[in-house]
Specification:
The complex is a heterodimer of chains A (287) and B (314).
Chain A (H helix, E strand, L loop, with lengths): L1 H37 L2 H4 L20 H9 L2 H33 L1 H15 L3 H15 L5 H7 L1 H17 L3 H9 L4 H12 L1 H17 L2 H6 L8 H8 L1 E2 L2 E2 L1 H31 L6
Antiparallel strand pairs in A: 1-2
Helix pairs in contact in A: 1-14, 3-14, 4-5, 4-7, 4-8, 4-11, 5-8, 8-11, 8-14, 9-10, 11-14
Chain B lengths: L26 H31 L16 H6 L3 H33 L5 H13 L2 H11 L6 H9 L12 H30 L2 H9 L4 H29 L3 H6 L11 H11 L3 H8 L3 H21 L1
Helix pairs in contact in B: 1-12, 3-7, 3-9, 4-7, 7-9, 9-13, 11-12
Classes of the chains: A mainly alpha (287), B mainly alpha (314).
Chain lengths: 287, 314
């Protein structure tokens, strides 16, 4: 029995080591952001050829200098505010369009609705890279250059298809019986939707809200194309493009901004990821 | 009329009186009405710009003016012999294929590790997802700092370990810049593919694997002849998404190298941006971007086929 047990231990060790390696690869840029955000400049800006100075740890006491600079002397908070209001308006538009459409595709349109549903999903695959040039022309027609309303108009082009697909899957998972029973009781379909389906679907709506918002946060291409005035930028554009002093990046504050923005999103994302995967792979995984 | 099963009727307490049928009961119309706004939006803001993208490629449109005139194939005659365009086309293919090949290997391995029960699995999953959840532009600027020409922590570590003798200018040499871009793409996409593969693994009935063990199949045999074929549809889905996100991405190249050094790392999207927005030549930019279309069409067809096969099998 002895050698067998040894093999089992060895397997465990290998398992943990592999898991550790993967985690290290995934996390290391964030760890580096964290270090950079809190390192004093004399600890931070030491050339990489100085082998006696280990960059992976704090060699001088951590400082809040970069964070202070970020909040007091840069437009970071303005960009956060911009992103939040743009995100909220886009979420509202998305829900108004996608929730009814998702229900219609799930319940009311039969066979051709299914095809249409796949069609809607495929539009999610049409990338911003293909559309930003025609959009720049359309935005110019509408006179919305350099306006945040351009983003409000354009962002639903990826949130609506995605959330429609998500809601469709969600409504399909609600048992038909419940609705039919309510209709036997004399409710119209519309009333059933209002009084029965929506209360049951609230977690689906919440998921759609979260993902619509994170999709808005992820965008870089459209913001880069439409917005050139620094105070009107979103976080994803302003931080990488406009957080420079003259020609010099201030890396401490820059990395702080990346970290402070990324972590909350990652936490929320993690709570809803299973639904997201279900939405994306519906059809390919048998439930 | 109503079934006498009170317990299953939580929605009303009395039998409903006969009502006139209203619009709210006409299901076909209600369905169309509920679908219409979303459909109109998608047609107006995906369909129209898509058509315009095609039209622009055959026009001499410039940014800054609203003029529009047809020039036939002129834009294509300009870009087709252009070595910079060849380079961008080749880079798009290369970056996408290499990074996705690495992503498959990493994701399948990571999913196997994560599917085993061990302490801290949830934490590991959360940490693994960070690269995918973080806004891509912010992650890219983080990597720009990691590959910095003076303070790169990767260089320090490699020098310290003795893996390299000279200082590596990641964005100064075409090969290193290529490697850097591929590393960032892999880093960003593999967590996503891992989670999708994991979802697929949990859908495989445990008995199949157990039966294979009883039949005497070893780990590798089980892996290649049982698990991998069963996982293929879901891995295909993950890779197809990966191909779309990687081949059309602008932010990584734009923030890491801006297409440099010597325009050696341009991809179709960054070249389209440079010609169309910076250069102001919308027509030429649109013509460059149009070369992404074949990739997307192939992906869409494969995606539909995978979905259909799974449906037939269900």
């Amino acid at each position: 029995m002895r050698p067998r047990r040894l093999v089992r231990y060895a397997k465990r060790v290998v398992l943990y080591l592999v898991a550790l390696a993967f985690t290290a690869f995934a996390v290391f840029p964030f760890y580096w952001m964290l270090l950079t955000a809190f390192k004093a400049n004399r600890d931070l800006y030491v050339g990489g050829t100085v082998l006696t100075h280990v960059p992976w740890i704090f060699n001088a006491p951590p400082t809040l200098e970069h964070i202070e600079l970020l909040f007091r002397q840069t437009l970071y908070l303005t960009w956060v505010r911009n992103t939040i209001w743009i995100g909220l308006v886009v979420v509202a538009i998305t829900l108004v369009l996608a929730v009814p459409a998702g229900y219609a595709l799930a319940r009311l349109t039969g066979r051709w609705g299914e095809r249409l549903g796949i069609g809607v999903f495929l539009t999610y695959l049409v990338p911003p890279t293909l559309l930003f040039l025609p959009f720049s022309r359309m935005i110019a027609w509408l006179g919305l250059q350099n306006s945040q309303w351009a983003l409000v108009l354009v962002y639903p082009t990826f949130t609506v298809p995605f959330c429609t697909w998500l809601m469709m899957g969600f409504f399909r998972s609600i048992p038909r019986d419940i609705e039919e029973q309510a209709m036997i009781d004399g409710y119209s379909r519309f009333t059933v939707i209002r009084k029965v389906v929506l209360p049951l679907g609230i977690s689906g709506v919440l998921t759609a809200t979260i993902f619509a918002f994170t999709l808005v946060l992820q965008d870089f291409v459209y913001a880069l194309t439409f917005i050139s005035a620094v105070p009107r930028m979103t976080v994803s554009l302003g931080v990488p493009v406009a957080l420079v002093r003259g020609d010099v990046f201030y890396w401490g504050s820059l990395m702080a901004a990346c970290l402070i923005t990324s972590i909350p999103i990652a936490v929320v994302y993690n709570l809803f990821i299973d639904r997201f995967i279900q939405g994306l792979t519906a059809g390919a995984v048998k439930g | 009329m109503a079934l006498p099963r009170e317990a299953r009727r939580p929605f009303s307490t009395s039998v409903a009186p006969l009502r006139r049928r209203t619009l709210a009961d006409r299901e076909d119309w209600l369905g169309r009405l509920m679908l219409a706004p979303a459909l109109v939006y998608v047609v107006a803001l995906v369909g129209v710009p898509f058509a315009l993208a095609l039209a622009l490629a055959f026009s001499s449109a410039r940014s800054g003016s609203l003029e529009f005139s047809w020039v036939g194939l002129r834009n294509f005659w300009t870009i087709l012999p252009d070595p910079q365009f060849h380079r961008a086309l080749w880079n798009t293919l290369r970056f996408t294929l290499v990074s996705q090949a690495l992503v498959i290997v990493l994701a399948v391995t990571a999913a196997h590790v994560l599917s085993a029960a061990f302490v801290g699995r949830r934490l590991v999953r959360f940490l693994l997802l960070l690269p995918w959840a973080a806004p891509v532009a912010l992650a890219a600027i983080g990597w720009t700092w990691i590959f910095d020409s003076t303070f790169s922590v990767i260089n320090w570590t490699m020098l310290w370990l003795g893996l390299t003798k000279r200082w590596l200018y990641w964005f100064g040499e075409p090969q290193l810049a290529t490697a850097a871009i591929i590393i960032v793409h892999v880093w960003r996409m593999f967590p996503f593919a891992t989670v999708i593969t994991l979802a697929g693994m949990s859908a495989i009935p445990q008995e199949i694997s157990e039966a294979a063990v009883i039949d005497g199949a070893g780990f590798w045999r089980r892996f290649f002849q049982v698990n991998l074929p069963l996982l293929l549809p879901i891995i295909t889905v993950a890779v197809l998404f990966g191909v779309v996100f990687t081949s059309t991405d602008l932010s990584v190249v734009y923030l890491l190298t801006r297409g440099g050094p010597y325009n050696s790392t341009h991809v179709l999207s960054s070249l389209a941006f440079q010609r169309g927005i910076f250069g102001g030549d919308l027509g030429q930019g649109a013509a460059v971007a149009l070369f992404l279309l074949p990739v997307l069409v192939v992906v869409a067809i494969l995606m539909l086929r995978t979905a259909r096969r799974a449906e037939v099998g269900a």
